[in-house]
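User: Let's play a game. I give you a shape written as tokens, and you guess the letters that built it. Ready? Here's round one.
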């Protein structure tokens, strides 16, 4: 077991080392040495497919479902067989159109439609976003096991989680979003992902070898020790076949369609020949990383680990057998698996968000156009938002069914890309309308048949919709849609979502005729592996007209300046001039201008996506009438030179025909565009001035807030110290006062009363009055001492100086202790006391004295505000925690005050009856004690119906608790 700070430091050193490696890789690339352009690095980077779902969840799946877990990995390996045909075609298309993401790829096929790109982006964010939460939860769970925190996942998520999340945001931005790259390649990030793949493979093999060959004498020894009476966990017959087939299909599609997988395999590829070697390297990697999964799961079963701990057997087995440093290596491997997935997913999802959701909005809202020049900052914000939303998902959903099932649901979500994407690669008839209808229909059915049941099973929505259907229509039950009953709900949802997707895609494509531009792109995508090259380049044709390059460059720079800094825009233009073969010419032909425009669009596409780049170039670059006529003459010369029919020419120069169709429209809008550009320049200057002033004011305000915050911290520290000091100083004399009062009272009873006698009525009456006054003083002094003790306790708890005991505690003993201390109060008020305690409750680790104090405070409050009726104590087990409650039949609390009563110095009596009945610190102390134990406390009440105060105590694994107890 390791100190949490040590583990965090090791994580920082690990990620810091990866970042230095990434910087070194990118520096080498800037000097012409491309380390990533290597089939081994490419193959290892594809290991981003193996997330914590593989690293930890594979063992859990094997323990629960037997060999069914193999379908996920066999499916992905089967998909590799088609890489040379499918993946290589994707890479060629990516290089041709400068694709930046899977959404960009799909939209490029369908006439660079912004609607298609936006829809694909939404599907990715909704379907994959919560999968990030699964990675974070795995990190929190493994952190709680490997450290000495002694707390559950949610405690880790609340306390350590923000640190981990901030580290992931920081490293993701440093690895993948440090700058806008016109090629949209991240060599440093790819190198880091490749090294992470090595680390997680090494960790998996190390723990596998330890378990199989050091704890046992080989795999056969492990299986020989399995309980003979253990029933098979795999579903029999048709159910097993259905689950296998579904998982196989999902994994087969995921190897092509997962956004992170597409980004690494397609966007980051430098050489399509690397695919040929990755076709055997990647399956070998998958075989090695899964080789020991089933033996480790079997070892966990043989050692009688509870099923809910199966996911963490990789950590727990070495830890329980005296190998903590091996467990630390496993934790680093799991963190590498999570960080790789989160990093690549966040980068590609942020790219989709800015390119396909944000920029279209910016283009339609002039007041937001300043964001074009701040596109990099927008991506930083998007990365942080995506990761923090995943973190929030962990806090809200916690241990629910939904979070655990997100891996399979995410695979089913990306399956909705298959018809539009794979169909678009091979079916020329596929159209934009078909893609929109197919993806929309499939996604909506996915939401209804898969995501909605997951939400219901997580307890967020009533179960009626699953059992009876919406509005009582049984045919519309999400898990039995149209009366179909399948034994596996995932298979049911996958079938219907894919059925609707394919059907709508085909119908939409056949119903509407394609435009010329769509047919051109369909041919280009279908023939990506068979494109020929025209011997004579377009730049060889002049068309009888020369164009002033300097004049055209101004318009091009204006477009580039919307998205890049001025110096960067000039550099991009210079590179595009070189790529177009123009060099330092002053005058160029119309054909050379079209080639330059094509290169400009490709450069923009690398930064903002092909659909957004296409839209920007359309709106920003126009040709004069004589330039259009010259371009038509060029096309005539091309036809004559190639001796081709118009249909043949269409398949070879589809790009130029597309441009020709757009030139007329651009010429007609020339005046409007110029006026719009002038207004934008004016707005931009005003916006820059406003931004500078706002930044200055913000910096000043931030500085004041920081100073104020530091001052508040000092004052709070002074307040806590003052309370502690004054409480100490007041408690001693107050204790003495009470002691002396008790002595005086006893002397009064023992000496004065007998000496006065009944014959002196006046003296006797005076003595009795003195006794009454002493009793009043004693009552108030004891109340004041209670207040002092409460103030002292709250000061210790706030300052962190309280001393805590860690021992095995019985919940029933705590209840018995607390009820015994308030028995006299119960008897005085004539109330009934009931106990509802489950049998065979497990012991918990905690401070028995303080937990008993919590029960005493809650019971005392219940007795104070209950005049007739009863007080009930209850203890029951719910999963991994005990739920302890105190209910009464008293006057109750209004709903808005149920949270307020836990605040410091808030008195329930004052709120309810108009007079105080306590110090106002008891419930505040209770909350701090409960939260220290990793639990939570709350009130449920309504006026006149009694109150219930409930708190939870986490249950730790008994053998671990016993070990800690023995050590202490």
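Assistant: Ready! My guess for every position:
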């Amino acid at each position: 077991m390791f100190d949490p700070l040590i583990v965090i430091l090791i994580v920082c050193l690990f990620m810091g080392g990866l970042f230095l490696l990434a910087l070194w890789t990118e520096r080498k690339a800037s000097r012409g040495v491309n380390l990533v352009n290597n089939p081994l690095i490419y193959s290892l980077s594809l290991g981003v497919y193996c997330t914590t779902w593989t690293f930890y969840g594979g063992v859990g799946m094997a323990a629960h479902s037997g060999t069914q877990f193999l379908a996920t990995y066999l499916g992905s390996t089967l998909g590799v067989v088609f890489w040379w045909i499918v993946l290589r075609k994707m890479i060629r298309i990516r290089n041709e159109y400068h694709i930046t993401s899977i959404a960009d790829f799909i939209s490029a096929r369908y006439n660079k439609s912004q609607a298609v790109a936006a829809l694909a982006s939404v599907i990715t964010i909704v379907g994959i976003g919560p999968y990030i939460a699964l990675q974070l939860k795995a990190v929190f769970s493994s952190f709680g096991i490997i450290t000495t925190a002694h707390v559950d996942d949610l405690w880790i998520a609340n306390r350590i989680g923000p640190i981990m999340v901030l580290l992931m945001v920081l490293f993701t931005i440093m690895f993948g979003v440090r700058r806008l790259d016109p090629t949209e390649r991240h060599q440093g990030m790819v190198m880091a992902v490749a090294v992470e793949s090595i680390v997680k493979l090494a960790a998996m093999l190390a723990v596998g070898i330890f378990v199989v060959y050091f704890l046992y004498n080989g795999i056969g020894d492990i299986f020989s020790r399995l309980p003979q009476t253990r029933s098979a966990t795999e579903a029999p017959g048709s159910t097993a076949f259905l689950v296998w087939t579904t998982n196989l299909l999902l994994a087969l599609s995921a190897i092509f369609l997962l956004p992170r997988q597409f980004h690494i395999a397609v966007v980051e590829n430098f050489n399509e020949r690397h695919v040929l070697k990755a076709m055997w390297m990647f399956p070998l990697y998958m075989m090695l990383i899964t080789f020991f999964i089933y033996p480790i799961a079997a070892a966990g079963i043989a050692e009688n680990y509870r099923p809910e701990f199966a996911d963490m057997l990789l950590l727990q087995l070495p830890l329980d057998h005296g190998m903590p440093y091996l467990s630390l290596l496993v934790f680093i491997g799991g963190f590498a698996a999570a960080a790789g997935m989160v990093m690549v997913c966040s980068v590609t999802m942020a790219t989709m968000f800015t390119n396909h959701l944000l920029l279209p909005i910016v283009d339609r809202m002039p007041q937001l156009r300043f964001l074009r020049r701040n596109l990099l900052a927008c991506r930083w914000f998007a990365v942080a938002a995506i990761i923090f939303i995943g973190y929030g998902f962990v806090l809200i959903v916690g241990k629910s069914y939904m979070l655990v099932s997100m891996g399979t649901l995410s695979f089913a979500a990306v399956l909705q890309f298959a018809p539009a994407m794979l169909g678009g690669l091979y079916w020329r008839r596929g159209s934009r309308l078909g893609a929109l209808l197919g993806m929309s229909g499939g996604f909506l059915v996915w939401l209804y048949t898969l995501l909605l049941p997951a939400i219901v099973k997580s307890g967020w929505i009533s179960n009626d919709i699953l059992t009876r259907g919406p509005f009582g229509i049984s045919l519309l039950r999400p898990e039995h849609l149209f009366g179909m009953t399948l034994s596996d709900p995932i298979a049911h949802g996958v079938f219907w979502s894919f059925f609707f997707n394919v059907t709508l895609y085909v119908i939409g494509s056949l119903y509407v005729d394609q435009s010329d531009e769509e047919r051109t792109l369909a041919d280009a995508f279908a023939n990506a592996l068979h494109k020929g090259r025209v011997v004579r380049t377009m730049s060889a044709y002049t068309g009888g007209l020369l164009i002033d390059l300097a004049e055209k460059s101004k318009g091009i720079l204006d477009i580039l300046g919307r998205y890049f800094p001025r110096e960067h825009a000039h550099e991009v233009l210079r590179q595009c001039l070189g790529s177009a073969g123009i060099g330092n010419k002053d005058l160029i032909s119309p054909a050379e201008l079209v080639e330059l425009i094509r290169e400009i669009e490709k450069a923009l596409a690398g930064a903002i996506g092909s659909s957004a780049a296409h839209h920007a170039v359309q709106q920003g670059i126009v040709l004069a009438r004589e330039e259009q006529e010259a371009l038509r003459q060029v096309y005539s010369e091309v036809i004559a030179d190639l001796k081709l029919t118009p249909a043949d020419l269409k398949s070879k120069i589809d790009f130029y025909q597309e441009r020709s169709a757009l030139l007329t429209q651009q010429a007609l809008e020339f005046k409007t565009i110029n006026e719009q550009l002038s207004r934008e320049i004016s707005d931009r200057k005003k916006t820059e001035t406003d931004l500078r002033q706002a930044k200055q004011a913000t910096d000043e305000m931030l500085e004041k807030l920081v100073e104020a915050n530091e001052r508040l911290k000092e004052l709070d520290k002074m307040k806590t110290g003052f309370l502690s000091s004054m409480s100490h100083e007041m408690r001693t004399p107050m204790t003495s006062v009470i002691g002396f009062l008790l002595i005086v009272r006893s002397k009064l009873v023992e000496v004065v009363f007998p000496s006065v006698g009944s014959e002196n009525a006046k003296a006797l009456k005076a003595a009795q009055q003195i006794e009454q006054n002493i009793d009043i003083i004693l009552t108030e002094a004891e109340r004041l001492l209670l207040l002092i003790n409460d103030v002292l306790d709250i000061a210790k708890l706030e300052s962190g100086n309280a001393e805590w005991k860690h021992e095995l505690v019985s919940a029933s003993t705590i209840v018995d202790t607390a009820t015994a201390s308030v028995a006299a109060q119960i008897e005085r008020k004539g109330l009934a006391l009931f106990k509802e305690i489950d049998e065979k409750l497990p012991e918990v680790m905690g401070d028995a004295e303080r937990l008993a104090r919590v029960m005493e405070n809650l019971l005392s409050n219940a007795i104070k505000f209950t005049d007739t009726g009863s007080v009930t104590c209850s203890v029951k087990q719910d999963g991994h925690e005990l739920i302890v409650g105190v209910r009464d039949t008293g006057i109750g609390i209004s709903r808005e005050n149920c949270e307020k009563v836990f605040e410091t110095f808030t008195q329930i009596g004052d709120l309810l009856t108009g007079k105080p009945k306590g110090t106002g610190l008891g419930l505040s102390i209770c909350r701090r004690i409960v939260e220290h134990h990793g639990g939570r406390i709350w009130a449920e009440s309504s006026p006149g119906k009694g109150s219930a105060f409930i708190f939870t105590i986490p249950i730790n694994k008994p053998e671990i608790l016993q070990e800690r107890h023995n050590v202490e």
